[in-house]
Amino acid sequence: MLKIKNIDVFHGDAQALWDVSLAVEKKEIVTMLGANGAGKSTTLRAISGLLKLNKGSISLAGVRLDKIEPYQIILHGLSHVPEGRRLFPSMTVMENLMVGAYVSSAWKSRSSAVNEMTEIFPILKERRNQLAGTLSGGEQQMCAIARAMVSQPKVLLLDEPSLGLAPVIVERIFEVIQRINRRGVTILLVEQNAHIALQIAHRGYVIETGHVVREGPAFQLLQDQYIKQAYLGL
Amino acid sequence: MNLKLIAEQMLNGIVLGSMYALVASGLTLIWGTMKMLNFAHGELYMMGGYVLYFSLILLGLHPFWGILIAMIIAFVFGLLMEKMILRPLLDKPGWHVSPIVATLGISIFLQNFALKAWGERFKSVPYFIEGTMDLFGFRVAYQRVLILVVAAIVMVGFWLYVKRSRFGIALRATAQDRDAATLLGINSHRVYLLTFGISSALAALAATMLAPIFLVNPWMGIPPQLKAFIVVVLGGLGSFGGAILGGFLLGCIESLATVFLSSEWKDVAAFAVLIAFLIFKPSGFFGTKEW
Predict the structure, then answer these.
(1) DSSP structural state of residue B92
(2) Is position B165 within any domain?
(3) What number is the average pLDDT over the span A69-90?
(4) ipTM
């Protein structure tokens, strides 16, 4: 469904990705593992058009995403929960969700779409009129995921949803990710926490200094001697 | 020193302050969304004054249509300015100062253009409504009452628009986090473009309302531009509520300075307050990022 072929991406003069290829099939959860600065977020930002490609292509269900404007990508059914949540801090939770419904197809049915999200995340209903900047880390992550889901995407990109959260909260977030996946949403999950990511993913890629170094089904990666040592601490 | 005089001057201050608020809210809108200062804001104001003058005197239109045309022309001019001059500069990495300098250039150009094209004679515009009314025992010109009413309607309307409408939500989202807004399908270029247009139209509106009081001339934009900068600092850069509050505050400070010192001192008082704020409360009443 989502195909990334041989992409090179630069941050200014420094090359961040070398010939990275990966594919996500319909209704899969695919995880991308790697250390800080390995190029995981860069890959997601390239998919969303926030970074330009120097080489290669990115396509979603046959549509070349690298050929359209970044703000049009969500119209093709791809939504991105960025690293660090990136909520609109001086807007309320409800207003943040409303921005999620900005695209014209979702705007008309915004109240039902927003209601659907508050059913998945009841805490957001409680906090509806609170400014997003005052939420706890876990609540912010839930709000960010809900905001990305309001437009009812087919593919969801998640950038480090576990970052800075207590283990209990991380577990809750990952349960929700699985629930979203069971509703038919394809997921590309970037994580440093390899343990939990490989538990829910079907397949995984490992990226190091801008190169894909391993790929395969999650159960295989869990057994891989190198990954055990480098990422699972076993 | 009688109380009646003070109260009368306060009322004048509030009327004038409401227009400062309108001019400043355009500036703060641009700062809030684009993180840019527009030094040509006063000249967009000046253009509004001239358009009103020509509509009323040459075309003989009703003031309502004159105001509307002035706002539309300023809106379109703002769009063109953003698209043709500022956009190419804003997108260049490492060129943060150049758009601001460009607006300064536009400002100088427009002043001299007006001087060359329309002459240096000050042009007077008649009051929209003649006569005075009795307000709490004061005699107030209808024009001033009209200014207050228009300011109130526009500010409340604009506030609701930014809070409730789809575009308003996009505008605030872009102001707070441009990348996150892009990910959610918001075309930030379009937001910037319309922001500039709306800001210009607000400046033109203020100019048309004040033109009968201050006369139309090539330099008419300079005082409101400077005052708007003071207001924006008092209220907090980028804050809409701050621009409103700051506008009224500045109007009242000037009026009180006129009563207690003399009218020559009113600008001294205004800038003294600015300096005091810069020293003791540089973030203004509301700080930054209120959108």
Answers:
(1) S
(2) yes
(3) 94
(4) 0.92
User: What is the arithmetic mean of pLDDT over A65-84?
Assistant: 94
Number of folded domains in chain B?
1
Is B142 a residue whose pLDDT tops 90? no
**Taking a C-beta distance cutoff of 8 angstroms, is the pair A23, A3 a contact?**
yes
Q: Is residue B6 part of a domain?
A: no
What residue spans of chain B are helical by DSSP H? 3-34, 41-53, 63-80, 87-90, 98-118, 142-164, 166-176, 178-183, 188-214, 222-235, 240-260, 266-280
What stretch of H or E contains A113?
helix A110-120
Lowest-pLDDT range of A101-110, A220-229, B189-198:
A101-110
Domain presence at residue B289:
no
- Chain B touched by A50 (CB under 8 Å): yes
Q: Angle at Cα A127 formed by Cα A121 and Cα A133, nearest 5°? A: 105
User: Mean pLDDT in chain A?
Assistant: 93
Name every chain B residue with its beta carbon within 8 A of the beta carbon of A100: 184
d(CA B231, CA A37): 44
- Residues 6 or more apart whose CB falls under 8 angstroms from that of A62 comprise none
Cβ within 8 Å of residue A168, ≥6 positions away = none
CB contact under 8 A, B185 and A91: no
Instruction: Give the burial class of B264: count Cβ atoms within 10 A of its Cβ; 0-12 exposed, 13-18 middle, 19 or more buried.
Output: exposed
**The domain containing residue B109 runs over which residues?**
24-219
In terms of pLDDT, which residue wins out, A230 or A26?
A: A26
User: Residue for token digits 């302050």?
Assistant: B17
Q: Is the pLDDT of residue B1 over 80?
A: no
| B91 Cβ under 8 Å from any chain A Cβ | no
To which H or E segment does residue A6 belong? strand A2-11
* Rounded CA separation A103/A156 (Å): 16
Contact A88 B177 (CB under 8 A): yes
Residue in B187, B221, B189 with CA at minimum distance from that of residue B74: B221
Query: Domain for residue B199, yes or no?
Result: yes
Rounded Cα distance between B210 and B91, Å, is: 36
The most distant pair of C-alpha atoms in chain A lies apart, rounded to whole Å, by 51
